[in-house]
């Protein structure tokens, strides 16, 4: 316990010394004091009647723990905050008080101890005497208890000597004595107070303030002392410390208006308007009724501050409270401020209520309601459409300022009572637009907001012809009004005026471009946007063009069919939108991941490995927010750019763009778009002849959609073009899961046929034939396979195999129905096995047949087999010695 006390005392002394040396601030010292609390200070308090240098009752040297508990510790009800902040301090019971109480109790016990009395009498007598003694003690005045933070008796002489030295001008001696007292009892305020006065006389105001602050903390119940310290802090330009002092003063005098006012002013200077307004609100509650003018002045300042900080509702509540408390002091300016806030909040009904209550405005209905409040109640009713019975009439006093009249008119316009607002507007139009332009603009904007463009147009026309209000904002409103009225040509001129006066205005340029396009002037429309992009790049602090301007320019270029320019503009935007992925060179490692989460992790790993800088394509920085364009618009732009790149033959860029879109997190939450992106990558890889990557994407698609023939066609094209055999095992494994899939049977048969294992191919084709006997394709493939088997060197029963093959080809010919393709295939099979006389027969039939009619001459030419038939016939004729006949066929069908 002794060690704990010593360590606490040393800590307190160390903190005080640090503060006095300026190593810690006043706020830090205050926080330490609040953290340590009463425990560390009470334990250091010496008892009266004991020497600070000798042993004490608790066995400690120079320190005595107050006997408030068995162990001499502090009471459980002690609170550190109460020790410093409350008026009533916990007192410490002295040794004399305890001894006196014990002696009194012993006297009572001795008087009650009489062996000659009976137990009952003894008990009764003792109880009576004890009751009398207690009554006597209640009336006895208890000795005055010493406060804990006063200087103890053994040190009062030293403290008095210090004060005497200070009075004699011996400042250094006085300071030394004060410091000695502080060393022994750092919780007492008197030595700090005396030291502060000494330093003040010496002219060391900073040290004086430090000691005075400590003294005030140790004896905090004097608000005047805190106010004095706040003033000294302000003289030293320490505003935060002054605010803290005022806060301490308010803790003990919370209703002091002067202190509240000073604190609020300082808070306002330190850019803390919210806390300052809280103080002003407290002042409003404390101001007496007779100081109504001061109340209203403060209300006006507070309302302006509330409005400046965006707390319009609080400003309205403050004004309403002032109007309720001092209705006779309300001026037109106050009503104008309140109605301005109501208009800002679009509370137009409250505007009418305020003007009716404080400006004597009379409201009535033509339907018979003449009472003002009854008319206001009618405002909440639904509109029945009977304007004759619901048109409101307003009567305003002649002394009403025109500002208030126009706010009333604006409210009536927004409430759709146009007839009632008309007289007020006419009254305004009698004034000069040069002088009352702001009111002109208010009423014109009100008309525009409710769609009354016919009423707004003449007012705006008057404004744009003035000198003061010939501004871009007014011209913009005028252009919007003309555009809404369908006066497109005049609107274009007005928008051009806006662009001339404000070249960086984005909305005006976009509207001008749209109207030029609407009027059939694509070049002018594009020029407006191009100039906008250049202007934005010059004016903006960011290096690149504005993203919204680029988007509108891209849309315009696409609508005009200028694909090259559109692609360049769109790629600028999309490269920024897919920035992290677009910059990477090897996106194949990312897009091959199955889930979007794995793709995201892989992309992050690549970016981290490269230090955040892509090693692939460069990206141009853009100004503006990418989120200003919706996800749907970004997707539409991406699809248009992909199609345009494909049309232009830039297949490599299509592949990179689509992979960047899939690797980017922009569309990762849209599963439908994710699926479509994979199909787009598949198409782009096929067009770019990147068949290895195309196979990676088509394989899972095939596994999910085994019944889609289009996918099997693409798969077959990819595997045929890639000249890779890795798909053989995939098809065989898939056949086990889907044994009734005809396309798989064909593909496995093709794989075996190409590998030369004709019997396996025949087995797969027969499987397909059994699944669909009417399919001519299986008949043709079975016949061709038999012919291949017959062409082998070591085939047994060659003629039997040929007969079987020919029977399947005849069946194929029947199912195909005498087409050019069927005759050519049969002739080509017979030509292969050397039956040339039979092959000539079928070739001749195919040569004299027209190609199939598919409706498009381009595709009909692609399906025409006459060139192939003529060439094969020429080979047969040339081999048999008919050179002239062969030349005739070649000249007729094969020479361009």
Automatic annotation (TrEMBL):
Signal peptide extent: none
InterPro entries assigned to the protein according to its UniProt record, in alphabetical order: Tfc4/TFIIIC-102/Sfc4, TPR-like_helical_dom_sf, TPR_rpt
Pfam families (UniProt xref): TPR_11 (PF13414), TPR_8 (PF13181)
Coiled coil: none
This protein's UniProt keywords: TPR repeat
Renumbered ranges of TPR repeats: 223-256, 472-505, 820-853
One GO BP annotation of this record: transcription by RNA polymerase III
Biased composition (Low complexity): 45-62
Region (Disordered): 39-126
Chain intervals with Acidic residues compositional bias: 76-89, 97-114
Skewed-composition ranges (Polar residues): 116-126
Name of the protein in question: General transcription factor IIIC, polypeptide 3
Organism (species): Branchiostoma floridae (Florida lancelet)
